[in-house]
C-alpha cells in the first residue's frame, strides 16, 4: 500500500482571508466555523430592467416556457467592471473552505480543498453576468441552486441568510428565497461538518400556496476544465439524453451524431475523438443527462491536477446527473469571454433531485415541504471514481497482460477512519487486504494479481470500517438496450382515447411546454365526454389560477357530479377541495367549509383541507375550534410551516402565551429562514417588498388583519428594486382589507395613494392582487391605474381580451402612461388584430417616452410586421441614432436596414465599432448582420472579430419554425418577436 498527496500552487485572494481570531480555537479542535465577511470583486453591473412587463410565455427556455412575468426583464450588462463589496459567508473546517454569496441567489462562490490546494468548484475571480438567466443576468462558477425552474428565477436576486454553529461541530449558512411565480419558498443550507471533507446541501422546498405546484431542482456545480478534464458517471451508464429526451447517444463514446457533431466520423480521423466525457472533444454547446443508473454518485476529475470532485445523493430521489458545456470551440470560447475575464472555460456537473431531465417537473402538494440532502466533496489523485458513497470513493483498474490479470484500487475518504482495504472473490473469499488509517486528502492503493481462472465479475473491492462496508465496487453489467426517445404528441383529433387526451394535456401543463397548450386536448376530451371528471377538474384548477372563479366552479361541480354518480365517498377527494377553494373566493364561506370537510376524508387532502378549515375558523373568531382543528391535523405528522404559525396565532388569542412561545422557538429552530415565524417571534420585517406582501397575506389569511395592514404599510415604503415594486399592490391590498373591516374612508385613501405611487416595475401577480384590484375598480369605476395593473395580471394569466378592454378603458379614462399605451398596442396587435390601433398606441407611447430605447425597438418590430417601408423605418431609426446605440438588437436592426438600403459600408461601421452581448439562444443575429453587410460589399466570409461577441457554430441547431409556419415541438429557441404573437393569426 502507498500513500500520496498532491500539491497545487495556491493564489491568494480575498477568498483566502484568515479565520477570525475568535473562531480559531473551534477550528483547531476539528469543528467547522462560519462567519460573515465582505468580499470585494470586480463586478460588471447589470443594467436596470425594462419598465415594460414582458409576456414571453411562448419563449423556449431550457426546454420549457421562458415566461418571466412578473419579474422585470434585464437586457444588458455594463461593459466595464467596478469594484463591488459583496456580503459573503465563509465556512471552513480542517479540510475545506467554502464561500457563499447570499446576494447572488445564495450560490456557492468557491470550494477549496485545503489538503491538496485544489479549487474543486470553479472560482471566477470576477462577477461578470451574461444574458443567460431566465430574466437576464447569470454568472458562471461555484454552485447554483435551481428551483422551481431552470435557471433559478432568483439566481441574481439576494436571499435572506442565517448562520448557525451547532453543538455537533457543524456550521451552516441558510439561504431563503422567494419564488416570484407561485410565491413558494425555498431554503437551502450549506453545511460543513466537523472532521469531514463533505459539503452538504440541505434543501427545504415549501409550497406555501393552496394549489399543487410543479417544480424541479438542479444543483449546478461549475468546474474548471481543459484538455485533460474528464467527467464521470457510474459504470452502468451507457446512454445519455438531450433535453426532453429528444435525442440520445451512447456514453462515454458517442455512437451517432449528437448536437449536430458527427462523433463517429471524428473518431475515424482521430482516435478517441468520440469520447464525450472529455471536454476537449465536445465542439458544440452540449447537454447530456443520464437515462438510468443504479448508483448515487458522479463527478469530474482533473488529470493534470490529479484532483477532482464527487457528488453523492440518494438515487431514490436524486436520479439527475448531467454535464453541460459551451463547447471547446471558438463559439464556446466566445461565451467564456462573456462570463469571465481570465479564468477560462468550465463545465457544469449538474445534480437533479426529483428530476432526471430538463424539463422534468415534479409536484408539490398544497402546503407540502420536501427536504433532502446532496453532498459534494473533493477527491485527491485516485483518478475518476468508479464507486463512491458519502464516506469514500474508489478508482479500480482491471488489466490483463498476456495470461495475467490484475486488479488495482485507489481509495480516498471524507473523514478520518481506520479501515480495511480488501479485494475479494465472492466465491473463494479474500484475495488481498490491508489495514490503514486514512484521512481526507490522502490516497491509499492496493493491488493483487488474479487467479487465471477468476471471472472479473466475481471480484469485489471493499473499504470496511469494522463490520460496516463503507464502500463496495463490482464490475457493472449494464443493459445495452437503447432507451426510448421522446416524440411529439399527435393532434387532439388523432388521439385515440379520452384518457390519453387528458394525460397529454397534463404533460404539457406539468412540463410548462412553451409552444403547445393543453387546452385543445382537454377541449377534445370534453367534446367526446362533457362530464369527464379528470378533465373538468384540470380545467377547474386552471380557471381558478386565472381568477375565473365562476367558470372554475362550473368545471369543479361537473367533476363532482361525475365522481359522485355512484358513490360520494370518493377515493380521491381533490374535487371537493378545489371546489372549496373556488367557493372561498366567491365569498361562500360556509359552503366552502362544507366542501373542505368532505375533502378531509381522504388522507391525501386532509392536511390542505384542514388548514383551510382552520383558517376560516380563525378568521371568524372561533379560536378554540380553530386550535382543535390545527392540533388534530398535527397528529398526522406532515410538516406544514403555515399550520404551525396558525397554531401560534390562535394560542396567543386564547391567552396561552407560554405554549405559543415554546412552539414558536422550536419552529424557528427548525425553519431558520421563515418570515412569518420571524415576525411572530419579534416583529421582524423583511426589507423586500414582495416578501412583505406575502407576509401580510399569510397574516390576513389567519385573521390578523391589523398586523397585515402594518406589514403592507411597510411594503408601500419598500425600495423600488429590480426584483419588483410592491408599492401600488400593497396599497390596493390595504384598501380591500379596510373595506372588509368597514373602514370606507381608509379604503378610499389607500386607493388614492395607490394611484399616486411609483409604478415602475410594479407587475401584479396572484389571486389576492387580482381580487384587490377587482374590488378597487368596483369601488371606483374611474380608477385607471387599477385597470392598468389588473390588465397586466390578466394578460399574463391568458385573459388577454379582458386585459385589452381594461387597458383601452384606462386610456379612455385619460391615464397618460407609456407602459399603458405600449400594453394596449401589444394587445391590439395580438388579440384583436387591429393593426391601426396598435400603431397609434405605440406612436403615443413614444411621444410620452421619446428616450426609451426598448419602446423604439418594439415599434420597429411592429413596423416590420405591419409591412412598413424600409425607408420609413430607416429614417425613424436615423432620427433616433442615440437611442439605437443603446441596444444591441436595435443596432442589428438598423444595420440590416442600412444593408438592404445599399449602405452596407455604414452598417459595417456600426457593427464593428460595438461590443455586443448576445442572449443565450439568440446567437447568430449579430453575425448574420455582419455577414449580410460584407456579402453586399463583395467581401469574403471570415471568422468574425471578437467584438461581435460570438463565433461561427460548429453545428447549426435545428430550425425552430419551419417554412410552413409550423413550430417544431422540440424547438430549442425562438425569436423574441414572440412578444408579438396573435391569438388567431390571419
From TrEMBL:
Residues 67-379 form the DUF5107 domain. The keyword Cell inner membrane does not apply. Pfam families: DUF5107. Keywords: Repeat, TPR repeat. The keyword Repeat applies. Residues 1-20 are annotated as: Disordered. This is DUF5107 domain-containing protein. It comes from Tessaracoccus antarcticus.
